[in-house]
Amino acid sequence: MESEKVDQCPLHGVGARPEVLVGRRLEEVIAAWHSSEDDGEAESPLDVWLLCSEGSPLHITTGSDWCLIVESAGPHTGYDMGGWGRVEVAPVGDRTPFAAHLGEVVLAVREEFEREAGRIAVEIDFASGRVRCDSWAGDLRLSALTPVADRDGECHRG
Predict the structure, then answer these.
(1) What is the C-alpha separation between 8 and 118, in angstroms, rounded?
(2) In 37-107, which ranges are E strands?
(3) Fewer CB within 10 Å, N side or C side of the chain?
(4) Residue 100 resides in a domain
(5) Rounded to the nearest 5°, which phi and psi values hold at 77?
């Protein structure tokens, strides 16, 4: 009898381990955004690629089973989907929470898993805060989380 692995997506497998980011400087973030004439640009990107001081780019996106896919892969090019709009791929500028951490070193990474979907979230810590990447109803969601100073002035992750 084969045992089920909680940290593995049944459809996409284990993928890359985001811990490889620890100790690396975030140099660039590229994202893919869907846009259409009717709806304009999407609020959240479809994909993000983290390019660091060393190693391969880390691609973060969601799977059809609502898992969070993390893989070692470079950005693809944008494409036209006809009447369904376009997917543009470009540096994020200030459009994601990662923009505030460009040039910073990754201090820690935490992952969350569910039995049915495998990985569902990754939190990446920087000195000035952290970014949470998760799959929410099949969409990639990025959130900025900042350190919280206690009454002694010491910073703790909140």
Answers:
(1) 5
(2) 40-41, 47-52, 58-62, 68-72, 79-80, 86-91
(3) N
(4) yes
(5) -90, 160
Q: What is the pLDDT of residue 38?
A: 75
> What burial letters (b/e) apply to 86-123, b meaning 16+ CB within 10 Å?
ebbbeebeebbbbeebbebbbeebebebeeebbbbbbb
How many residues appear in the chain?
A: 158
Residue at 8 is within a domain: no
What is the rounded average pLDDT of the residues 20-32? 95
**Average pLDDT for residues 23-48, to the nearest whole number?**
87
- Give backbone dihedrals phi and psi of 3, rounded to 5 degrees, phi first: -85, 145
DSSP bridge partners of 60? 48, 70
The answer to the question of residue 59 being in a domain is: yes
Task: Return d(Cα 15, Cα 119) in angstroms, integer.
Answer: 9
Number of domains forming the structure of the chain? 1
Q: What would the pLDDT profile of 43-99 be if each residue is shown by its tens digit?
A: 789 999 999 988 899 999 998 888 899 999 999 999 999 988 899 999 988 889 999
Question: What pTM value is reported for the model?
Answer: 0.83
Closest CA to 55 of 27, 30, 31, 77: 27
Q: Domain range holding 128?
A: 18-157
